[in-house]
Amino acid sequence: MTAVIVADNLTRDYGVRRAVDRVSFEVGPNEVMGLLGPNGSGKSTILRILAGYLRPTSGTATVAGFDVLSHGLDARRQLGYVPEDVPLYTHMRVTEFLGFMGRTRGLYGTSLVKAVDQVVERLSLGAVRSLLIGKLSRGYRQRVAIAQALLGKPKLLVLDEPTNGLDPRQIIELRELIRSLARELSVLVTSHILAEIERVAHRAAILLDGKLLTVHRLTDQTNRRLRVRLTVNDEATVRSRLRGVAGVSLVEALPARGNYVLEYEQRQADAVRALVQAGLPVEEVASYSSGLEELFLRLTEGTPQ
Amino acid sequence: MKTFAALLDKEICALFYSPIAYIVIAVFLVLMGYSFTMTLFLTKYATLVHIFFQSAGLLFLIVPVITMRAFAEERKAGTLELLLTAPVRESQVVLAKYLASMSVVFAMIALTGCYAIVLAIFGTPDWGPIYSGYLGLALLASTLVSLGLLISALTSNQIVAAVITIGVSFLLWMIDTLASVLPDMLERILISLSLLARFTPFATGAMYTSDLGFFVSATLLALFLSMRALARR
Q1: d(Cα B174, Cα A12) in Å, to the nearest integer?
Q2: What domains does chain A contain, in order, with CATH numbers?
């Protein structure tokens, strides 16, 4: 399968400031990739380059095989983009706006009406379809922005800080939406909120000061991990005592005293019971999702916020 | 072509759904109507020459009001990002905004046609200068609109766009007054750039292809530069 995004040594300067510094990554079909980094780390700039709004100072990027510079029009046809702060034409009505955006994507006549109806239904915009966009709440605006990005069935959806300004329920709904969209297309999403990326993305790229530090795979396997605090502070002892516990193994000892990451094969409750029954001095047990937090803190350690 | 039609629709709706177009047209017609009536009563001549010059003068103030929002407003609201990341060409975006702005100006100028009808009913006007005058106004408006779009494409502040457009247009209008104190070579260049010197023959009934070429090429140049300004990101 060919990659939907190939970014190769992307660099972008704003005057003397280098906002993006030789960033390379790929996003595969049906993959959700998260770009994670503090504010000002170059996430939005990368998205804007991919969406064709900014030109890279050097380096290349392709979307579905089309170079964003030399074949910009074709690349943009393959991509739906939702900028940060969801700018929309507030004087238009929802369906009028979706109709306009659909027409710019080459849809017309019955295919346009059908496409608009589809995204209105998908994003549950039926109740507001004839309202002025300027009158909509932030949550609805976000949905309208995503709806326009899905017109014309793009291969890639690019979302810049999509959870900004949403309430907790809307954030959960958005998460579900991204998961369901990933069955049909690839998604590139940025956030400065680690937990968001952790919940929706298959892989997370960590950026700092315009540099790509690492790409971290958030596999299902990482969901089968526990973080435990034991009264024992010796890795060798823990390892040897764990040998007697079927299905549970030590992944790593964390820097914090007595904290370990364990991997289990059985159900979580059974794993904890087995630990206790084996006589391990367990003080605290917590789900350990992906290790992204530790990785992020380790990589960005010592940088001023 | 369908994409361009979508862009043009959007721009025309943006101008005509807001009160701007109607207010601009109404104010223009009130002022011109007053001037036409007064001049006709005082001179009793069946001519529109003075109307053409006064319309031209008003265009310098009114066109920047129409064009100032074109790009500046979209840039400030962030919708320019939405527009330029859609699969459309920058040239289509610029051309759509140009034609939409021109449609307001054309509506405005066309409505002054009733003065010519009044003259035809009550007198026997010489139609030659009237035709050429209207052509001159259209060409002048086209140059001013494209200049306004170029300046709007360079800023995100509408007021700045309007004020600079007014300043540059007026400077180009009267730049030939400076010419007489300059050396021959510069004098010729400045006179050839003067909008007044280019417009006067049209208003008085004389048409030169060089003037026509000037207005057309000034329009094309400003539109091209607007495109470049948009592409420079």
Answers
A1: 43
A2: 5-219 (3.40.50.300), 221-289 (3.30.70.100)
Output the CA–CA distances (angstroms, integers) from residue A121 to A118, A154, B58, in the order listed: 5, 17, 50
Q: Is A19 on the interface with B (CB under 8 A)?
A: no
Closest partner residue to B87 among A48, A90, A105, by Cβ? A105
Structure tokens at A69: 């510079």
Query: Who has greater pLDDT, A279 or A219?
Result: A279
Whether chain A has a CB inside 8 Å of the CB on B78: the answer is yes
pTM of the model: 0.86
Interface confidence (ipTM) of the complex: 0.89
In whole angstroms, give the CA distance from residue A221 to residue A193: 22
The predicted-structure confidence for A208-233, as pLDDT tens digits, reads as follows: 999 998 888 876 545 677 888 888 88
Render pLDDT for A227-271 as a digit per residue (tens, 0 to 9). Answer: 888 888 888 888 888 887 888 888 888 877 888 888 888 887 888
Where in chain B are the domains?
2-231
